[in-house]
Amino acid sequence: MFKNTLFLKIILIFTLPALGILYFSSVLVYEKIQSFNEVDGINHNLTYLINTEKLINSLQEERELSVLLLLEKSEKSSLQKSRELSTKNYEELEKTLKNLNQNLDNKVIQLKSEINKLELFRARIDNSDATLDEIFEEYNQFDKVLLDSLFLLKPIKLAFDFNNEFRNIVHFLSFRESICIEKTMVDAYFINTKINDKLYIMLMKNYSLLEINKDIFLNNANLEIVQRYNSKLNEEYYNKIFIIRNGIKNKNFSTKLIKIVLFKNISFCIFRFSCD
Question: Stretch 226-244: mean pLDDT, rounded?
Fold first, then answer.
């Protein structure tokens, strides 16, 4: 009996530390796996963000060149290059989306539908069978689908700071999209000297989205980013843009008002910041 008790004690003396080591080793391995998954998830989300931004940028340029082709019958060669870049960027984004390991099958289908619609719409533009309203509707919708897809990405577990920064970047991209829409619409006014009711309503909605996303971005950005944003603003130009915006909102489209500043040559101080 004594021998069995002693043997049991000896077993426990050696077994308990071994079990403790095994337990803490398992916890350590689990934490490392979690850390790896976290880093891997961040990498996938950043890659998707970068490729989405590239496609949005090329579609913004394509939208502007399409407007110039429609109104001035110019920029045909530049537009073709822009289209090729958009198609290339879409193909890269599609590959990235498939490697995300997230349940975004519906989004893949939606993006394919948008690129197919765009291919057909490009032919209409080439045949002068598209209106100015339709150009904005087509490209704005595509960019909206892309921006929405960024909001749908699953947050990275425990990476709270990254998730907050990521979401704020998406608000910034939405803000920049509104700036690009406004710039192209005002450029169109310079050429066309009028804004129809449909475009006016579209522009008013765009102003609302611009202010919403700008406020969210600045309210959640760190001090360094806010200071950088403010440093890019030229107060004189910004005040003149403010006058033009108010004139447009009040349907005061006089050439004299618009010529307070050569809008096409300003390049939007805010747009400069967003492209840096």
Answer: 76
